[in-house]
Amino acid sequence: MPRTALPAALLAACLPAAAAAQEGAAPGWSGIWRNDSCGSGTDSWVLGADLELVINEGDFFAGPVAISPEPLAGWYRYIAGGTSFYIRRDGDSLIFRDLLDPDDEALSDAVNAGEVTPATHSGIWEDTAYHRCERLPAASQLLFGELAAVLLALDAVPRDCGRDAEGGSCMEGIAAALDLGGDGKLNRAELARALRAAALFVDGTGDEATELGDAAGEQVAALAAAPFLASLMLASFDYSGDGSLSAEELAADRFAGPGSDLSDALPGAAEFGAMLGRNLGTLMNLLESLPPGSFPP
């Protein structure tokens, strides 16, 4: 991966929906949701302002989401993977509405086109109630805990920061979201954590759900690769030499300045996922070919 692609990759991985600059989405969606007891099972739905992670018993998928800013008959349209659903809050619960027969292609196409909605049709929907949990169940926490934490932390990044031509608010928001030490900068371990989360997220963005066993294998490889990538980022962009990256260092020399729109430069989530997937695959092959002792201490 070219040196200049590393900060852009981190930015785009963290903000795949920045170009859309969603504003005004109804509050209260973000969190870890389950339709089972919080402490057992595996199935979980981690929903952020622009991203989601869905964990099933044997597989998972991840990707961007779009939630309509205004309700329709009390329901908000929720689009994930090109498919439309509806959600609403009911007290402490989140109600997810899907078709009773999702295999009815004609009806599904009409829902996706916005021609069939809760306002126009009744009796064709199935509702599922989810309740909020503080954390993932133990069976999922080990593999997905970092990704869930990073995904939800990124909700604090301003949704319109893609309109900031200087890149300051985006980078400050990302640094704050990923900064576990509280010093306003990202050290090697914090960068490695973000890269592991980004790799797992991208692993789940394919057309088909990703098997949990495959994801676990990828994360074992990422444990070795992420610190190496983080070291490369520090070597390339730690201009102060203090062993960490500030928002200013991440943004330096990479934004067009006043009068331009950063959102125009960001790839869409699908395009970026494919690009990062190719680059990570190439990099992993390179790392596997290196002799022992090649990684920095």
Structure explained in plain terms:
- The structure is a single chain.
- The protein has about 300 residues and is α+β, with helices and mostly antiparallel strands.
- The protein has two domains: about 140 residues, no CATH class; about 110 residues.
- It is built from eight helices and eleven strands.
- The strands form two sheets. It has an eight-stranded antiparallel beta barrel. Strands 9-11 form a two-stranded antiparallel ribbon.
- Helix 3 crosses helix 5 and helix 5 crosses helix 6.
- The longest helix is centred in the last third of the chain and has 26 residues.
- The N terminus is likely disordered.
Estimate nothing, just give the exact number of structural domains.
Answer: 2
The number of distinct helices, counting runs of at least 4 residues, comes to 8
* Average pLDDT for all residues: 79
What structural category characterises the helix and strand content?
alpha+beta
Helix content: 25-40%
Largest sheet: 8 strands, antiparallel, barrel
Sequence-ordered SSE layout with sheet pairings:
Blueprint: H1 5-14, E1 31-34, E2 44-47, E3 51-55, E4 59-67, E5 76-80, E6 83-90, E7 93-99, H2 105-112, E8 125-133, H3 138-153, H4 168-178, E9 186-187, H5 188-203, E10 210-211, H6 212-237, E11 244-245, H7 247-251, H8 269-289
Give the tags.
single chain; 297 residues; alpha+beta; two-stranded antiparallel ribbon; elongated
